[in-house]
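All the exercises in this workshop are built on plain-text protein records. The record below serves as our worked example for the rest of this section.
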Amino acid sequence: MKRLMMYLKDYKKESILAPLFKLLEAFFELLVPLVMANIIDYGISNRNMGYIGKMGLLLLLLGVVGLASSITAQFFAAKAAVGFSTQLRQALFDHIEDLSFTDIDKAGTSTMITRMTSDVNQVQSGINMTLRLFLRSPIIVFGAMIMAFTIDVKCALIFVVAIPLLSVVVFGIILSTIPMYKKVQSKLDQVLGITRENLTGVRVIRAFHQEAKEADRFRENNEALSAMQIFVGKISACMNPVTYIIVNGAIIALIYTGAVQVNIGNLSQGEVVAIINYMNQILVELVKLANLIVTMTKALACAERVASVFDIGADAAYVGAQDQKLADKVDKSAPFLDFKHVSLTYQGAGAPTLQDMNFTVNRGDTVGIIGGTGSGKTSLVNLIPGFYPATEGEILLEGRDIRTMSDEELRGRIGVVPQKAVLFKGTIRSNLQWGKPDATEEEMWKALELAQASEVVDGKPGKLDATVAQNGKNFSGGQRQRIGIARALAVNPDFIVCDEPISALDVSIQAQVINLLEQLQRERGLTYLFIAHDLSMVKHISDRIGVMYLGSLVELADSEELFENPMHPYTKALLSAIPIPDPDIEKNRQRIMLEGTLPNPIDLGEECKFCSRCPVCKDSCHKSQPKLVEVKPGHFVACSQCAE
C-alpha cells in the first residue's frame, strides 16, 4: 500500500482536510452527552423550561455544525479517493501497455482486467473510508473514555476493560481475513478468465455443443468463489455481534454501577445518562470501525495485488540505448536484418520454441517462411518488432541490436500485419493513424488503395470517419484484413512483417494484394518477411524461402532453387503436397507421406529433431543435432546426410 500512496501526492490538501473536519465533527459529538446531562440535572429536575430551550438550541447548533463538518469531510475524502484511483488506474494501464508479451502471458489477461477494475475500486473505497473514519472512530472511542473519567473514575474503569477486549476482537478478525480476501480475489480472476474465454470462443463452444460443459465449469468455479466469500463473510460478520455483546455487557455494568453511585449520592442521574451515551457512542463507532476494518482489509489485499503488477517487467528485456554512439551507429553495409544464433523460450515453457535461428535478410528482399503448424513461424515474427525478447543470441537491424532501440524507433521502421486482423473501436481514420498519428488523408487513401480496401471505405457512410465497432465486428474478415494491411502501409515502413496476411481474402483479392506488395517493393525498396501456408503463393512472391520444423530452420535457399532442388527430407515432403496444374502429372505423382511420431519437445536429446519421421535417418543422426550449413552457394541445409 505504501508504494501506491505516491498517487495521493496531488491530493495532500484533501487528505489533510478530510480527517480534520471529521475530527471537528467528533469533537462536537463528544459534547452532546454533557449537554444532555445538564438538561436532565438542571433543566428537567428544576422544571426550568428556559434552560431546556437554551440547551436544546445548543444541541441543534452542535448538530448543524457537525453535519456541515461531516459533509465537507465527505467531499474532500471522495475527491482524494476518486483522484487517487484515476491516477492509479492510468499508471497501471500505462505500465501494462509497456509490458512485453512475455510479461502479459505470465500475468494473464483476466488477472490484469480484475486488478484494473475490481481491485482498484476496492482500494478507492479503502482510501475513502480511511480518510473519513480512521481518525474519527478512535478519537470518539478514546475521547468517550476520557470524558467518562471526567465524570466518574469508577464507572470509567468499565471502559478500560471493554475497549481492550474490543480491540482484541477487531484486530484478531483483521489478521485472519486479510489472506482470505487475497484468495477471494484470485478466485474472482479465475471466474473472469472463464467468462472472457467463453465470450471470445462462443462460436466454437456452440459449434461443438459444449454449452452444458462450459456452464458446469463456470458453475463449479463460481460456487467455489461464493463459498470462499461466504466463509470470509462469516468471519467478518462475527465482528458486529461480538462487539455488541461486549458493549452491551459494559452498559449493563454501567447501569448497575451508576445506580449504586446515584443511590449513595456520588453521581447525578444526568451524569449516568451521559456515561451510558458515551458507551453507546463507542458502540456506534465500533460498528463503523468494524465496517472500516472489513473495507480496509479488502483494500490492503487488493493494493498488494495492484502493486505486484508494477513489479512485473521491472527488469526490462530492452537494455536501451545506453551508449549513444553505439545507438546512432548504422552500418549500411550490414544485412538489413540479421538473426545471430537466436533462441526463444517462453516463460514457464519446458523447452525452447525457437532454437539457434541464424540467417540474414538483405534490404529489398522478400523472404518467405514456411513450415507446419507449431513450427515456430509466428514466434519468429514476434521477435522482430520486439514483442518477445530473444532469450539467446541477438537480432540486428542494419548492424544495431534491436534491444538498444526504443519501441517507438523500432516499430516506426517496421509495419506488422498480424495473423488475426484486429480493429479498435473508433473510426477507420483513427485505426489507420495508429502507426502514424499525423498521417494525412492523402496518405491514408493511398494506403487503402494499395491494400485494395478503398472500395470498402468508400462504400461506408462517412468514409474515413465511418464507425468501427469493437474488434471491427461491423466489417467482414476480409475487410478487416485489408484495413489491417492499409494500417501497416500507412506507417511508410522500411520493413513489413506479414503473418498470414491474405488468409481471410478471396482468391481474386489475394492476387491483387500480392501484385501490389511486389509493386511496393519495386517502387520503395521495401523488405518483407512473409509467412503463409500457401506454398505456391510463397514461391511466387519470395526471393528466398526458409523452411522451419519444430522451432529450427532446416533449409534456406533462393525460391527457384528450393522448389527445383529441395534437399532436406522434410522440405521434400512439404513441397510434394503442392498440386500441379497438369492433371496427368498430378494423378501419377507420388506424394511423400511422413510417418512416425513427433518427438517430445521437452526431451529432444542430442539427436536430430526429424529422426523419428525421417526416411533416410542413419545412426549418425542420433548423435547430434545438425547445424544450418551452406552445402552449395546460397543453399543452406540442416541435415547431416545432405551435408556429406
